[in-house]
Specification:
The protein has 262 residues and is of the alpha+beta class. 23% of the residues lie in helices and 27% in strands. Strands 3-4-2-1-14-13 form a six-stranded mixed beta sheet. The structure holds one DNA strand of 15 nucleotides. Its EC number is 3.1.11.2.
DNA sequence: ATGGTTGTTTTACAA
């Protein structure tokens, strides 16, 4: 079973790319971020025509997440628990039946947090990460395959970016950000890409500006974090970076995990 | 070299 995460930076602007990629890559479950659309604006019919079930948690103009799946989910949770006042659409979770039980898959768009000196943005990022940790801790009690996939807006380690000095004061790489990400991992969650390769210069995002793609000036911020029950089933991962060279690309590329749940 | 780009029912802001 192929499970992917992709920040598409606007589903309407990226519809041709999304259709091409779904047709080529044939993922079973796709976690999308930054659909930048309300639920009614999502190109549902076009995606359903390719054989996918569509669940969205949209928002006008910004943010917005979705789950596309070849099999229909049994349950859907919209919004990250822990703050009823949070208006931002950054979390959707689905439960899917597999031969030996059920898997739980979340699409996560973790707050960017920049600029870090902003009185609201960076504290919001850190509190959102703590809410995610609390929710993940509860999910782990179920002892089922859990896959938390998305744009974490976190560069976990210096070798996950082209030039650590450039990112030293950025909300994606500040020590407090990385520590919060480690607290999440320390629950027992495994970074799928790092579990399957020692390769360096693996990136999932290249800025549109200053020729970042051409210079391979990228960062790795899109991650699949796996509960032990999912990590035990992980066979391979891939970062589908060829998509970044397409016409009108997103600044992120799909990151996929291949699992055997049979 | 203090630049550069993309998306959004935009005309500012987020990334």
């Amino acid at each position: 079973m192929k499970i992917a995460t992709w920040n598409i930076n606007g589903v309407k602007a990226r519809l041709d790319n999304l259709r091409q990629w779904l047709t080529d890559s044939q993922p079973d479950i796709v976690c999308l971020q930054e659909i930048k659309s309300v639920d009614e604006g999502f190109p549902r019919l076009e995606i359903e025509a390719l054989g996918y079930h569509v669940e969205t948690h949209g928002q006008k103009g910004f943010n917005g997440v979705a789950l596309l799946s070849k099999i229909r989910p049994d349950e859907i949770l919209r919004g990250l628990p822990g703050d009823d006042g949070d208006e931002q659409s950054r979390y959707i979770e689905g439960v899917f039946s597999v031969p030996r039980g059920a898997i739980r898959v979340a699409s996560i768009y973790l707050p960017n947090g920049n600029p870090p000196e902003d009185p609201v943005k960076y504290p919001y990022k850190l509190s959102w990460m703590e809410r995610l940790r609390q929710h993940a801790r509860n999910c782990l009690l179920l002892e089922e395959p859990l896959i938390l996939a998305g744009d974490y807006n976190v560069i976990p380690e210096p070798h996950d970016c082209f030039d650590p000095a450039v990112w030293a004061t950025d909300a994606l790489f500040l020590p407090e950000t990385r520590a919060a990400f480690r607290r999440l991992e320390n629950l027992g969650l495994v970074d799928a890409v790092r579990a399957t390769t020692d390769a360096t210069k693996l990136y999932s995002f290249w800025d549109y500006q200053a020729g970042a793609w051409q210079k391979n000036n990228g960062i790795r911020i899109d991650h699949l974090l796996l509960a032990p029950e999912a990590a035990d089933r992980l066979k391979a991962t891939a970062i589908e970076k060829h998509v970044r060279a397409w016409e009108k690309p997103s600044d992120h590329v799909p990151v996929v995990g291949l699992f055997d749940f049979n």
